[in-house]
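Rotation project, supervised by the postdoc (A.L.). Task for the rotation student: set up a whole-complex structure prediction and record inputs and outputs verbatim in this book. Inputs entered:
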Amino acid sequence: MHQIALYFALLSLVSVGGMPSVMPEMQRVVVDVQGWMSATEFTQLFAIAQAAPGPNVLVTALIGWKVAGPVGGMVALGAFCGPAAALAYSIGGFWDRMRDAPWRKVFQRALVPITIGFIVSGGYVLATPGGPEWRGALLAGTAAVLLVFTRLSPLWILAGGGLLGALMF
Amino acid sequence: MGFLSIGARSFGGVLPWAHRVMVEEKRWLAPGDFAEVLALCQFMPGPNVGNVSVVLGRRWFGLAGAFTAFAGLMALPLIWVFGLALLYAEAATLPAVRAAVTGVGIAGGGLFIGTALKLAKPLAGKPWGIALAVACFGFIALGRVSLFAVLPVALLLSWLLARRNLV
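Outputs recorded:
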């Protein structure tokens, strides 16, 4: 359990752009490096967190729970949120005063391509739990297109994904 | 208490609900204020809405306020998600349920990709920025290289590009 706490605390500090940016790294460690669960189980836990109200960081609690029981779940969630929250608490005012500083604007622009690369990676690893194959690609591609080009609620897209999943897999 | 109700109602993302409760219902914040706090929290690490709760809780009630706001936001969703997970553990013996849940997860992955495409609008017409995003994808998703190795290099490159207005 201390392993997961330590690792999530580290991830917390680099999760600029929020949870989605570190999703691929979390999946890599939990599935490939530690072998705590299969890639399919990871995608399923993510699905459960998506189907619940609340911030999507709750998936960290589910991972912790799977690995080390309910207490592990609380510890994992706390470890992932704590360090970043402490940072927000302490530098919030300072960062705000730097709003118009040139270096802050450069920094913000510099983060854009990296965050995008990381979030697409997160989507890719979640959508290909058994390696790339056409059914998953079709499902994920449709979901992405619907989100970008329609005003359909993400909840309907997820529900449609569940229905298609039951039919296809 | 406001954060408790935000957490409880926030199906499909917290942000819209946070805005409705804090700005429209309780009038704790002006709309512009909300946007500013959010912009601040989006460029700090950690879950955005969690950070919003900490920053605002602190502003109004100090350290205790920050803790209360954060706990209020998380409490009910946490109970809900654990309940769902227990339910799923029972139902996971049915192949159709497993397949449906996997489908939801894959669609969720697709939503990530869609979100990234929406965020990528500022990169239009900036080939270096697009190349960097694609390189990040190659190393992280296909190469399975650790984020802790990719991030420093990518950040340095991107910083240099941003200073030349190339991203």
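Student's summary: Residues 2-132 of chain A form one domain.
Supervisor addendum: The mean pLDDT of chain A is 89.
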